[in-house]
């Protein structure tokens, strides 16, 4: 039985297989509409979500399966003090596969140790978000036609942003990626990412304080929201929240084929005027999230067509 807890749980070949399958699903949705008939996906969300939970549920429905679950800790027995281990042992009796989001780093890993069915990490604290990474990789591959030879700027809250941490790890296995980290000093990427990913693999990266100074070089601009819920004090959040705002003016020096990504939700960090720019890919990215989750569910359930 396989789980997906960390993006590195999948080999590059397995990622290729999932992305190829997602591409095929996009081309021929009818072929897949009954492949998970009578199977059930449980979505256990101990933390808020719109895209991730609903795209998982839509994914399972489009495969002909069913969904059950909860969308907040307060509506589950976690509010009575039940442990993750016990919740998972029980839900594993009702569902064939579980997607779980939790505010504590490592909670989905603990779940996987007790679960009788595959566990998918749908976000654990500031740590990992492997299915967003699959979404990002599919989007980059569809927009750019490749996953190598790219200059990627990560902008915003690089300290708490789990989508950034997971995508950096996943991209570290492709060739000729230039990483540019764009953040205020207080929201830099954590030391462990620098050590475990960049230094260990001898991958060069640079850190800058404005997006303007690097804009002309970028192939991908990955924008992120300042993660308010992970701040210890509100004053720091208010001081940093509008650090980086992408607007049409700043895009003037960008490449014509820049790909602008954002895992969403957006707060203020991308002006709505940018939405009409053909380089804005974040709503297509959200749609890709459903297709890649369909492919992942099939892979973890061992469903072949
Ligand atoms: C992200 C998350 O939950 O980490 N959202 C998502 O899943 N698309 C990003 C965020 O909340 O800022």
Give your account of this protein's structure:
This protein is α/β, with parallel strands linked by helices and 305 residues long. It is 35% helix and 15% strand. The protein has helices at residues 12-27, 51-62, 84-94, 107-114, 130-144, 162-171, 191-199, 234-240, 282-301, and strands spanning 40-45, 66-70, 97-102, 119-124, 150-155, 177-182, 205-208, 220-223, 259-261. The strands form 2 sheets. The chain has a 5-stranded parallel sheet, with helices on one face. It has a 4-stranded parallel sheet with strand order 2-1-3-4, sandwiched between helices. Helix 8 links the parallel strand 8 and strand 9. The longest helix is centred in the C-terminal third of the chain and has 20 residues, at 282-301. It is globular and about 55 Å long. The protein starts with 11 loop residues before the first helix and ends with a helix. The mean pLDDT is 96. The structure holds N-carbamoyl-L-aspartate (NCD). N-carbamoyl-L-aspartate binds next to helix 2 and helix 6.
N-to-C span = 19 Å
What is the global morphology?
A: globular
- If helices are DSSP runs of H or I spanning 4 or more residues, what is the number of helices? 9
How helical, in percent, are the residues?
A: 25-40%
Percentage of residues in strands: 15-25%
Strand order of the largest sheet: 7-6-5-8-9
Mean pLDDT: 96
Query: Which distinct ligands sit in these coordinates?
Result: N-carbamoyl-L-aspartate
Order of helices and strands: HEHEHEHEHEHEHEEHEH
Task: Note the main sheet.
Answer: 5 strands, parallel
Which structural class is indicated by helix and strand composition? Answer: alpha/beta
Query: Radius of gyration, Cα only, in angstroms?
Result: 19 Å
Contiguous uncertain segments of 5+ residues: none
Structure summary, number of beta strands: 9
């Amino acid at each position: 039985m396989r789980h997906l807890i960390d993006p590195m749980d999948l080999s590059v070949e397995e990622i290729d297989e999932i992305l190829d399958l997602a591409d095929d699903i996009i081309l021929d949705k009818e072929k897949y509409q009954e492949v998970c008939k009578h199977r059930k996906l449980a979505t256990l969300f101990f933390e808020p979500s719109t895209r991730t939970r609903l795209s998982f549920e839509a994914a399972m429905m489009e495969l002909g399966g069913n969904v059950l679950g909860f969308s907040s800790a307060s509506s589950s027995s976690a509010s009575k003090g039940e442990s993750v281990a016990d919740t998972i042992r029980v839900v594993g009796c009702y569902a064939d596969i579980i997607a779980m989001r939790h505010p504590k780093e490592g909670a989905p890993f603990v779940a996987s140790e007790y679960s009788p069915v595959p566990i998918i990490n749908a976000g654990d604290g500031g740590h990992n978000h492997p299915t967003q990474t699959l979404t990002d990789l599919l989007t980059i591959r569809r927009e750019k036609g490749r996953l190598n030879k790219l200059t990627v700027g990560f902008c915003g809250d690089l300290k708490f942003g789990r989508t950034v941490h997971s995508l950096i790890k996943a991209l570290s296995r492709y060739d000729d990626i230039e990483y540019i980290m764009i953040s205020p000093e207080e929201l830099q990427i954590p030391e462990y990412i620098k050590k475990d990913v960049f230094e260990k693999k001898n991958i060069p990266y640079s850190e800058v304080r404005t997006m303007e100074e690097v804009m002309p070089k970028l192939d991908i601009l990955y924008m992120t929201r300042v993660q308010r819920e992970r701040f210890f004090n509100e004053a720091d959040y208010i001081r940093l929240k509008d650090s980086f705002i992408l607007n049409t003016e700043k895009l003037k020096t960008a490449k014509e084929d820049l790909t602008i990504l954002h895992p969403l939700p957006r707060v203020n960090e991308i002006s709505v005027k940018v939405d009409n720019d053909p380089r804005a890919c974040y709503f297509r990215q959200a749609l890709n999230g459903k297709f890649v989750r369909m492919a992942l569910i099939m892979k973890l359930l061992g469903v072949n067509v």
